[in-house]
């Protein structure tokens, strides 16, 4: 089923009605099922999506789960609800700008993904089974590292293990080999935050970090801190982390491939 993208819409009502149209039997009975999920009457659902009534933000949050939206999509859905409920032109203008910014961001990601060969689920499961596969892929983007021997030495991994990984990477076009030299291939895999493999991917790199701690040097940096702080400051720090990562990516993207580094960030309440 070719499901519509929520980012194509400025109205959460138009989005949902389009979503309903793409369900089996054109969504017959969908209003009733949604009313049960939201604990409201079918009449209320019909009034919301066919008249001037609006969802409450609490109902919108529940509905995002019902639609199986990921975190970013859910945030966008709530933004559309806020926009629909906005009572002043100034607020609507501010929210509309946020909507356009989210749409532009989603469009850029979509365009990037159009230019790559996406791995199937089986290939992704292998790729994310170990840190070794993505590590080798990135290493082949460094011009001076283009043979199995060089990769083996760089990663301190037995050559036969590197060759086995390369066999998979080359077959799936993640790495290409020309005239005996390795380089990064056209295939790519996008891993959404809600993908079950995402946790495995993060765990793999943290396991490598644990190994590196035993051989720490001045070039590496390891830090762990625990704090007692106000809820307001805790929320503020959480909001700053994506901006910090974005600032790093802005420096990384235009730079030459001369080395490989891993950055792991954890921030959680205990």
Detailed description of the structure:
The protein has 270 residues and is mainly alpha-helical. Among the domains are: 6-114; 118-188, Orthogonal Bundle (Arc Repressor Mutant, subunit A). The protein has twelve helices and four strands. The strands form two sheets. The chain has a two-stranded parallel ribbon. 13% of the residues are buried. The mean pLDDT is 90.
Element layout with pairings:
Elements: H1 12-21, H2 30-38, H3 42-50, H4 57-66, H5 71-85, H6 89-114, E1 117-118, H7 121-127, H8 132-139, H9 148-155, H10 159-171, E2 175-178, E3 181-184, E4 187-188, H11 196-213, H12 231-252
Parallel strand pairs: 1-4
Antiparallel strand pairs: 2-3
Which descriptors would you attach to this protein?
two-stranded parallel ribbon; 270 residues; Arc Repressor Mutant, subunit A; 57% helix; mainly alpha; two-stranded antiparallel ribbon; elongated
Précis, in short:
With 270 residues, the protein is mainly alpha-helical. It has twelve helices and four strands, in the order ααααααβααααβββαα.
Q: In sequence order, what are the helices and strands, one letter per element?
A: HHHHHHEHHHHEEEHH
Please state how the strands of the largest beta sheet are arranged side by side: 1-4
Runs with pLDDT <50, length 5+?
Answer: none
State the helical fraction.
55-70%
Q: Please state the average pLDDT score.
A: 90
How many helices?
A: 12
